[in-house]
Amino acid sequence: MKYIRSDKEIQSIREACQVAATVLKQLVDTVEEGMTTYDLDQLGRKAIKELGAESACYNYRNGKHVFPAYTCLSVNEEIVHGIGTMRRVIRSGDVVSIDVVVRYGGFIGDNATTVLIAQGSDENAALIEATRESLNYAISYARAGNRVGDISNAVERFIKRHNYGIVREFVGHGVGKSMHELPQIPNFGRRGSGALLKPGMCLAIEPMINLGSSKVDMLDDGWTAVTHDRKASAHFEHTVLVTSEEPEILTIPKN
Ligand code: MF3
Ligand code: CO
């Protein structure tokens, strides 16, 4: 059946998601001003290795571009797929998105969160909170009998209450043996549209929300997406299992 995982696959995805969540939590607990994004990426590399997993980002290919880092670290105007570098020192007030995707036992776990470093602005704090809440709201629609468009529309509806820009160029996705499986899950759309949700689907839901305009530019590295107006952007992501009851968020660390 379309996009449905077997019980055995689900168990493997659960384990991969626990690894991804554990690594992400370690990075969130460690990130502070004065570190470079390279330092943070190296901590991610080590944490992933220590748990017996590998980074699904490292060497990931998109056409001629090969991703050179172990995690995606996107600071301030960077939306997603930022590359850690010794040239970027994390400063007080920065909006840092940390995206960890691992492969473990042959399956993927994918999650991301955004943190405000030390003393941040109220407007950036509000952006981050709204993005986090839009993800939680969207997850509540990841139920058997709903459709992908119900998840998409939930993000859009939630964000409409603010004057933020919803990124359209990047979308959530199914998760399995590879990182980007079907169905695609945009962060906007019509209720009741798209694929029917059934128990056994594993979905990475990931709103990317801009403080200002939704317009996106790509940097010359071929990966880093930045806001056109260079205002801040936030990104949250969980991998979620659709069940016959409540959605199960697979990327909440259990211990
Ligand atoms: N969570 C991101 C995504 O689903 C991770 C991308 S890793 C990269 O797109 F290697 F493609 F950058
Ligand atoms: Co993802």
Describe this structure in words.
Helices cover 27% and strands 25% of the residues. By secondary structure, it is α+β, with helices and mostly antiparallel strands. The protein has a single domain, classed as Creatinase/methionine aminopeptidase superfamily (Creatine Amidinohydrolase, Alpha-Beta Complex), CATH 3.90.230. The protein has a 5-stranded antiparallel sheet. Strands 1, 4, 6 and 7 form a 4-stranded antiparallel sheet that branches. Strand 6 and strand 7 form a beta hairpin. Helix 1 packs antiparallel against helix 2. The radius of gyration is 17 Å and the shape is globular. The model has no long low-confidence stretch (mean pLDDT 98). Bound molecules: 2-amino-4-trifluoromethylsulfanyl-butyric acid (MF3) and cobalt (II) ion. Cobalt (II) ion binds next to loops.
Chemical compounds bound to the protein = 2-amino-4-trifluoromethylsulfanyl-butyric acid, cobalt (II) ion
- What structural class do you assign from the helix and strand content? alpha+beta
In the CATH scheme, the class would be Alpha Beta
Radius of gyration: 17 Å
Helix tally? 4
The strands making up the biggest β-sheet line up spatially as 10-9-11-16-17
Q: What is the CATH-assigned architecture?
A: Alpha-Beta Complex
Low-confidence parts, pLDDT < 50 over ≥5 residues? none
* Amino- and carboxy-terminal Cα gap: 33 Å
| Series of secondary-structure elements, N-terminal to C-terminal | HHEEEEEEEHHEEEEEEEEEE
User: Quick one: biggest sheet?
Assistant: 5 strands, antiparallel
CATH superfamily: Creatinase/methionine aminopeptidase superfamily
Helix content: 25-40%
Mean pLDDT figure: 98
Which fold name is given in CATH as the topology? Answer: Creatine Amidinohydrolase
Strand content: 25-35%
